[in-house]
């Protein structure tokens, strides 16, 4: 099914703040384009590529559309989604709406995700029959699901009965299949072992058709690292269709000492008939970025492992699996954030010359969580809401998205506090001249109101810091 063209939203005056925020971000990205490469490849070379992962199995088109819109405005380089025509259509619709609000925005590449092996956890759906559930179950599955993919109602069986009589109750509902992305958290919390995981493989023939579309730019092949046979089978089924896209990503876990041999074998297979760019997605701890700080360690450890191996296969390298707001700091501590390859280490075989070893970061569950919180606030009466119809929520969602995209793109938020005095005006001018860099995302101006003890406070502040400037640490969990 081809995507329907998005109706351009009315350009509301209230989109002005969204436009201004997105334009400042876009402008700072544009100043750093490298000649000769598509902007997405230039980002990979610099190490500031950001990919939004909608989820290889997440097929809620309304959410995918809104997420794509918000993260396009935030400046992502790529949006990765399920290899399904309606989901691809939803991503492209989100991108088109973003471009109608901010015409200067960069169109991200659209990537479809497929698997060569049904054991890959990204390609499964939870399933259970609520009729098999004890009616008095406290429904931990519903509470633990990060995608709101389980909805259960406790209902009376015919007529009125006392609430305490569980024999007259039953559960209705179950898994909302299109929202389930296979994280598996419900499986482990069900006290009655009622939930099954149903695995599947994306059909290569359908995928080959998708790759012919003008609005699909890349493919990602998930592989388990347990042998090359299944990869080779999928590769030959896709045939020459792979040459319709600009980039092929291979997502794999760290399988220890055999990882590099496995990657090299796959690279040899791909080289046989593909002329585009290739990327290795280092999948640390799949589908866990929203769980907490520590989830990001595995993908960074994977990167450290590969950085120590000089004969690793050519291509761009990118983190995924457990990535969240701590990933950039973790990469910096490992000395791998936007650092270029060491002399003698391979650069991308497809592009040559020096480039960042880690080309960027893909964000999935965490990216969806921080924007999803805003999407859930849109009043239910609007049904499948188009976020652009609610500019205040769109602005809030964009601010959330930028907390993730901005640090990779190298943008900073600078805060300055001032009052209306001559001294503050001079200080503000000094801060603008000396503290702001090209590409800084925002100057936050805090207006301080003098209190009756202003002189005393000012004196104390000066004595304590030796300066009239206060360094602002701005962070968001
Ligand atoms: S597998 Fe994950 S996303 Fe799917 S229903 Fe269970 S908890 Fe929700
Ligand atoms: S936790 Fe298990 S038994 Fe309880 S409602 Fe969920 S699926 Fe049913």
Automatic annotation (TrEMBL):
InterPro entries: 4Fe4S_Fe-S-bd, 4Fe4S_Fe_S_CS, Fe-S-bd_prot_LdpA_C, LdpA_Fe-S-bd, PSI_iron-sulfur_center. Keywords: 4Fe-4S, Iron, Iron-sulfur, Metal-binding. PROSITE patterns: 4FE4S_FER_1, 4FE4S_FER_2. GO terms for molecular function: 4 iron, 4 sulfur cluster binding; metal ion binding. It holds the Pfam family LdpA_Fe-S-bd. Residues 124-155, 171-200 form the 4Fe-4S ferredoxin-type domain. PANTHER family: PHOTOSYSTEM I IRON-SULFUR CENTER, PHOTOSYSTEM I IRON-SULFUR CENTER-RELATED. This is 4Fe-4S ferredoxin-type domain-containing protein. It comes from Zizania palustris (Northern wild rice).
């Amino acid at each position: 099914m081809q995507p329907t063209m998005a109706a351009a939203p009315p350009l509301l005056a209230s989109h002005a703040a969204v436009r201004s925020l997105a334009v400042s971000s876009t402008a700072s990205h544009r100043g750093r384009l490298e000649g000769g490469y598509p902007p997405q490849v230039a980002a990979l070379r610099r190490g500031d590529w950001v990919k939004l992962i909608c989820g290889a199995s997440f097929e809620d088109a309304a959410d995918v559309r809104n997420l794509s819109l918000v993260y396009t405005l935030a400046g992502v380089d790529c949006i990765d989604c399920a290899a399904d025509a309606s989901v691809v259509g939803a991503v492209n619709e989100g991108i088109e709406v973003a471009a109608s609000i901010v015409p200067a925005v960069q169109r991200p590449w659209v990537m479809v995700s497929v698997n060569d092996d049904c054991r890959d956890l990204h390609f499964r759906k939870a399933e259970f029959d609520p009729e098999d559930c004890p009616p008095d179950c406290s429904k931990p599955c519903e509470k633990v699901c990060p995608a709101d993919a389980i909805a259960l109602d406790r209902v009376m069986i015919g007529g009125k009965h006392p609430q305490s009589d569980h024999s007259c109750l039953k559960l209705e509902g179950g898994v909302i299949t299109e929202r389930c992305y296979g994280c598996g958290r419900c499986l482990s919390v069900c006290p009655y072992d009622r939930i099954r995981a149903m695995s599947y493989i994306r059909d290569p023939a359908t995928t080959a058709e998708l790759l012919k579309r003008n609005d699909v730019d890349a493919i990602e092949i998930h592989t388990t690292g347990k042998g090359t046979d299944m990869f080779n089978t999928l590769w030959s089924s896709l045939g020459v269709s792979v040459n319709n896209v600009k980039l092929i990503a291979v997502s794999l876990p760290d399988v220890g000492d055999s990882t590099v041999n496995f990657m090299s074998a796959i690279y040899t297979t791909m080289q046989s008939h593909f002329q585009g760019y290739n990327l290795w997605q280092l999948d640390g701890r799949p589908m866990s970025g929203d769980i907490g700080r520590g989830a990001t360690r595995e993908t960074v450890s994977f990167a450290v492992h590969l950085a120590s191996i000089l004969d690793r296969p050519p291509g761009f390298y990118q983190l995924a699996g457990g990535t969240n707001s701590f990933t950039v700091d973790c990469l910096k501590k490992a000395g791998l954030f936007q650092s270029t390859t060491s002399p003698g280490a391979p650069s991308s075989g497809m592009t040559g010359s020096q480039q960042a070893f880690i080309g960027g970061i893909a964000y999935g569950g965490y990216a969806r969580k921080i924007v999803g919180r805003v999407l859930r606030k849109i009043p239910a009466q609007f049904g499948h809401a188009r976020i652009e119809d609610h500019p205040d929520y769109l602005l809030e969602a964009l601010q959330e998205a930028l907390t993730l995209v901005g640090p990779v793109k190298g943008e900073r938020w600078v805060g300055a506090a001032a009052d209306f005095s001559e001294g503050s005006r001079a200080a503000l001018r000094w801060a603008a001249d000396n503290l702001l860099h090209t590409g800084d995302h925002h100057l936050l101006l805090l207006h301080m109101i003098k209190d009756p003890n202003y002189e005393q406070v000012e004196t104390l502040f000066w004595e304590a810091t030796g300066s009239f400037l206060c360094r602002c640490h701005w962070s968001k969990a």
